[in-house]
Amino acid sequence: AFPGAIALAFSGMFGPFGGHLTDRYGCRVVFMSSSLITIIGLVSSSFVPNIVLLYFTYGFMNGIGSNLIYISSMMVPALYFKRRRMLATAIVSTGPGASLFIMSPIVEAIHKVLDWRKTLLCLAGLCLVPCLGGWALREKNKKVEQTIAQRGSSERRCRSSCDCSVLRNPMFVLCTAMTSLAVLGHCMPIVHLAKHCAELGISSDLSSWLYFAIGLSSLIARMCCGKLAGTGWISLPRLFQFGVFGLALGNLLLPLATDFPYLVLYSVSYGFGEGFFFTPIYCIILESLPTERRGLDFGIFLLFIAIPYVFGPSLSGNFF
């Protein structure tokens, strides 16, 4: 479990670094390079003789690769879309929900047939897909990319990578603070949901369907949220409030869910709340950032919200 926690921590802690690389070299280069880093990390992890090396190959390399893939992919909609940018951002942000919806049963099925080492090799093969997808990218905003690539000396580039002037942006600070507090409560139930099911006498096969329901409902909610945001019928802050309220209400009623059908209902409400929570805040953050340093500033945002993701489950475990 600890290598996975390290990967999760590095996927957020290296947000500013990954964002600066995206601003400096462009989405296509970073996307393909990060896919290769992830592949190397997963392949190396399948051959490690001890868990200490697994901390580096899986925890560090896989965490860094995942971080770079996520940040560079979130920058792509701004290069291609104007009128339907919010919907495009919502579609890209469905990655976490879609992976939980699609990959969870696939990985579980592979692991039942093969051991964990061969499962990692299969996952490394799947990582070739984003690598090929990055190769197909043709960035339209070449003027911005060339301006960034030709900017200043190496010393000036180093200073720009450490620039935290975005923290003087009131909108950014407010959104980051709200999201960090909300994430603290968001990440706790999903970590302990399987254990809660085991204590209620629900089998692991049934409990895995709860994560399937969370991923599917989150996927649908993000798409609906992006469509609603694009119409202008309802503002992004209102959608964010709706999502946070849904998450809070579901978590408040979770102790009353003692049967599997009620847990399925909770999982669906959790997924919808998550979708309506993350999609608006991503759109608000990305729209409030300057184009030439959008990746770096978005990486700083991911750094702050990674802190509750790392410590939240452990903190809740002391009370669970």
Automatic annotation (TrEMBL):
Major place of residence: membrane
Topological relation to the membrane, as annotated: Multi-pass membrane protein
Protein name: Major facilitator superfamily (MFS) profile domain-containing protein
Cytoplasm among keywords: no
Transmembrane segments: 29-48, 60-80, 87-106, 118-137, 171-194, 206-224, 236-257, 263-286, 298-316
Keyword entries, A-Z: Membrane, Transmembrane, Transmembrane helix
Gene Ontology cellular-component annotations: plasma membrane
Domain of life: Eukaryota
Source organism of this protein record: Nematostella vectensis
Annotated compartments: Membrane
InterPro entries named among the record's database cross-references: MFS, MFS_dom, MFS_trans_sf, Proton-linked_MCT
Molecular-function annotations in GO: transmembrane transporter activity
Stretches assigned to the Major facilitator superfamily (MFS) profile domain: 1-320
